[in-house]
Amino acid sequence: MTSPPDLAIEAHGLVKHFKETRAVDGIDLVVPTGTVYGVLGPNGAGKTTAVRMLTTLLRPDAGTARVLGHDVLAQPDAVRSLVGLTGQYASVDEDLTGAENLIVIARLYGFTTFAAKRRALDLMEAFGILMEAFGIAEAANRPVKTYSGGMRRRIDLAASLVMSPRVLFLDEPTTGLDPRSRNQVWDIIRVLVADGATVLLTTQYLEEADQLADRIAVIDHGKVIAEGTATELKRSVGAGSVSLRLAASGDRPRAAEIVERTLGAEVVLAADPYAFSARVPDDGADLAAQVLPALADAGITVPEFTLGQPSLDEVFLALTGQPVDEGDEDGESRPAGGDGDGGDRSTRRGRRAARGSAPGARGEPSSTIDGEVA
Amino acid sequence: MAATQTEVITTPEAQALRAAISMDQHPTRPSPLANTLTFAWRALLKIKHVPEQLFDVTLTPIIFTLMFTYLFGGAIAGDPETYLQYLLPGILVQTVLIITVYTGFTLNTDITKGVFDRFRSLPIWRPAPIVGALLGDTVRYTIASVITVGLGLAIGFRPEGGVVGVLLAVVLLLVFAFAISWIFTILGLVMRTPNAVMGVSMLILMPLTFASNIFVDPDTMPAVLKAWVEVNPVSHLATAVRALMAGTATFDQIGWVLLASVVLTAIFAPITMHLYRTRN
């Protein structure tokens, strides 16, 4: 142990290539114990690759990483005994029941058969209480393949909590979950951290990072492009943004001009000829409130008006000067096979596509005046 | 954020969760053997939940034994019953070896589904997931052996070596099957899909099992084929299994099989483990 124990994770200059792609291109992370650290970035930014290196699943090409003072390369076993990992894709055995999945893990940690069974049922029950309507006694004896996506996620999470890990890595824990399941996962994370664990979670949603994380690293193309608390990050992007949709497209030039004048910020015209948006400048919350009256005075009808936190798109736009690059998945979509698992990847990508359409998708407004959204 | 946390923790749900997650004492780290047996148990659970996977294991030996006995028996040995005495130990060998390809198939399935990532992130004896799976597979081999020998006995197979001879023959076969499985674990780790693993494994097994002395005495074969048949480890295995069942086994015959098993394991197990450890 050469690094102070008050750091749960310490990584310097982590690099990982896959063929010609630099999936992770020199990442530094410092995570104090007992905190939640959010790694925010789009698909293919290198989040999963970074997590896989920190959890000893992947050897870095360069750089060093320590988890609670243990080097991931020199002392992988010590690291493994301290961390829990919940990957991006539920890594539970679909043929086995939920309880059996947990019992296998508990047995591997050294629980006796009896203690393993108890631990499995305790965890399932606790998770069941959190999710209320979930008939746990029945579910315990059904194969995981009959579970819903949210239930699989929770079993997966329970599997990584069998040994109460000191550091928990959660790779996009709520991607594809409905809002209710997502809140339950958030509650679990909060309880864990309150009990002294450290959590590193990756996410595509600014809101999630904002809700949970003490500090956030924004990564793109394998590099950390911004780091700080949620407040600091948002300040760098502006207080938020307003999005409007007009009743008549002919009003747009006039409306845009009024909004520009009111907020003192440039508007961004949407592809939809009725819509446009604008960033609310720092300490401009009052100004945003004046937008609607100003438009009403001009006789412009605004059926949809949304005032929201900056979306990940806007954070990216502000930080990189360009929108999120959606096409590049290569750096990251290799959870199992680094060397181009063709068939494997296509199925994963398919699943991801299915999940992408779930509620809670990126840029979901956090507050609306519309009354129809959210 | 501190406020939200406190709020969360005082709800009864959160307290229950907290109680479930927290642990009074940590169990001591289990031995490599205990880890391995847990994985073997997991393999058995999979058989329990997906009994369909035993279809091949039960039907293949029945079809092979009946088909080859009555198809070739008269032509090769004059009558099926005489041929059965020669064929049955061989068909047992072939049946079990064909089932070994499932090892690579299931390993690859685990990998593509991400289950292996979890195992690799646990503080356990590293070879345990693979060795345990191989041990679990021996249950399948045993089932297939029981069916083959049982059917053979029912249609007239009369081993001179008695119960002990037959049991020893099956044990020797299991040892060899375990050893050759390491080839398929390598395929399971390097191939992209479970089906590709299956295809290539079959390609390897075909010349090993058919170009052997399982079905006929190699004396009638052309020189080149005969030369291969005589070095083919599967021929040595079939000879030893036959001899054990007939009660005429020599140390040489058994020794060759054990040597082949050791060599196969010594070469392919380390390659498997290297691939497993360095897998991206």
From TrEMBL, chain A:
GO terms for molecular function: ATP binding; ATP hydrolysis activity. PROSITE patterns: ABC_TRANSPORTER_1, ABC_TRANSPORTER_2. InterPro entries: AAA+_ATPase, ABC_transporter-like_ATP-bd, ABC_transporter-like_CS, ABC_transporter_ATP-binding, DrrA, DrrA1/2-like_C, P-loop_NTPase. This is ATP-binding cassette domain-containing protein. Belongs to the ABC transporter superfamily. Drug exporter-1 (DrugE1) (TC 3.A.1.105) family. It is a peripheral membrane protein. Residues 323-374 are annotated as: Disordered. Keywords: Antibiotic resistance, ATP-binding, Cell membrane, Membrane, Nucleotide-binding, Translocase, Transport. SUPFAM superfamilies: P-loop containing nucleoside triphosphate hydrolases (SSF52540). Signal peptide: none annotated. Its main location: membrane. One of its GO terms (biological process) is response to antibiotic. It is found in: Cell membrane. One of its GO terms (cellular component) is plasma membrane. Residues 9-246 form the ABC transporter domain. SMART domains: AAA. It comes from Oerskovia douganii. Residues 355-365 have a biased composition (Low complexity).
TrEMBL record, chain B:
Residues 52-279 form the ABC transmembrane type-2 domain. InterPro entries: ABC2_TM (IPR013525), ABC2_TM_bact-type (IPR047817), ABC_2_transport (IPR000412), Nod_factor_ABC_transporter (IPR051784). The keyword Transmembrane helix applies. GO terms for molecular function: ABC-type transporter activity. One of its GO terms (cellular component) is ATP-binding cassette (ABC) transporter complex. The chain crosses the membrane at residues 54-77, 83-107, 128-157, 163-189, 196-216, 254-276. The keyword DNA damage does not apply. One of its GO terms (biological process) is response to antibiotic. It is found in: Cell membrane; Membrane. Its main location: membrane. Keywords: Antibiotic resistance, Cell membrane, Membrane, Transmembrane, Transmembrane helix, Transport. It is a multi-pass membrane protein. Belongs to the ABC-2 integral membrane protein family. This is Transport permease protein. It comes from Oerskovia douganii.
